[in-house]
Amino acid sequence: MTEQNCILIGAPVDCGKRRQGCLMGPDAYRTAGITEALTDLGHSVADLGNLTPAGVDVPEPKNPLVHDLKRTVGWTKTLSEAAENAAQSGMPIFLGGDHALAAGTVSGMAAHYAKQDRPFFVLWLDAHTDFHTPDTTDSGNLHGTPVGYFTGREGFDAFPPLKSPVPLENICMIGLRSVDPAERAALAGTDAILHDMRSIDEQGISAPLSAFLERVASVNGALHVSLDVDFLDPSIAPGVGTTVPGGATTREAHLIMEMLCDSGLVGSLDLVELNPFLDDRGMTANLMVDLVASLMGRRVFDRLTRSRK
Questions:
Q1: Any idea which architecture 5-302 has in CATH?
Q2: Given pLDDT bands bounded at 50, 70 and 90, which one contains residue 299?
Q3: What is the C-alpha to C-alpha distance for residues 29 and 126, in angstroms, rounded to an integer?
Q4: CA–CA separation, 24 vs 14, rounded Å?
């Protein structure tokens, strides 16, 4: 990968669900050495610190189960503006924070590329589709709604108006293994590209990802990657509150990142759902930073041997 100006944006979003801890995520990535990993690869790094949600007024949600709508809307506004601004001078890397943050990061990046008249795509690496709306969620946890928002589903009246909705056919989801019936029904018949873990077991990781990347490249598209800790198997990444067995292995995850690096298409990145309170001696934070390094140019022969002492 060519040298990048990496812009680290701390997004301690912890309102998308009731289980607390993701607000510590951004500083855990810093402690795990994300800046050093990037600079060692020749990239420049600007760390903007941790942002705070905008103050907003929102109506009472129609669904009484919805949790902390006001702060989630405030974060969406803050992060959308931050993404659109940062993208003008480098590659934004959003340090989360729960996955509700993607409502802002993806919508802001989509707006940025719309101004360049460049097609925009999203690679969603997650056990979940996060395609609910505030009206359909039966948990009330808004970290299950960002894809619904940035693709323009109804029910987000309290949120900032979308400047540039992301077409469903421009979204590829890999790693799915926990999808609610309402989400499955809403996605049925759409052109979203969905790969659950069974299809990965049958086809491997590289074939579906290669096909998607070829499509992005064919139209000179830009790619946003949203990496949820629960994409990974909990045996290697325990620091997340939404563990689902049967996730990606360390090698599968690194292969994805290396292929993304080779493509040269990635313009922005989310790192989400890390809960250091649930981690085991920083192993999840360290793995996520290692994956970022693979995305940004580290090769298999360059990997460090970690001491167990």
A1: 3-Layer(aba) Sandwich (3.40)
A2: confident
A3: 19
A4: 9
The pTM is what?
0.96
Q: Residue 168, class by beta-carbon neighbours within 10 Å (0-12 exposed, 13-18 middle, 19+ buried)?
A: middle
- pLDDT greater than 80 at residue 141: yes
State the DSSP string of 4-65: -EEEEEEE----SSSS--GGGHHHHHHHTTHHHHHHHTT-EEEEEEE--PPP---PPPSSTT
Q: Is the pLDDT of residue 302 over 90?
A: no
pLDDT digits (tens, 9 = 90+) for 13-30: 999 999 999 999 999 999
Q: Which residues are catalytic?
A: 99, 126, 128, 130, 143, 228, 230, 273
The domain ranges of the chain are: 5-302
221-252 CB burial, b ≥16 within 10 A, e <16? bbbbbbbbbbbbbbeebbbbbbbbeebbeeeb
Does 308 score more than 80 pLDDT?
no
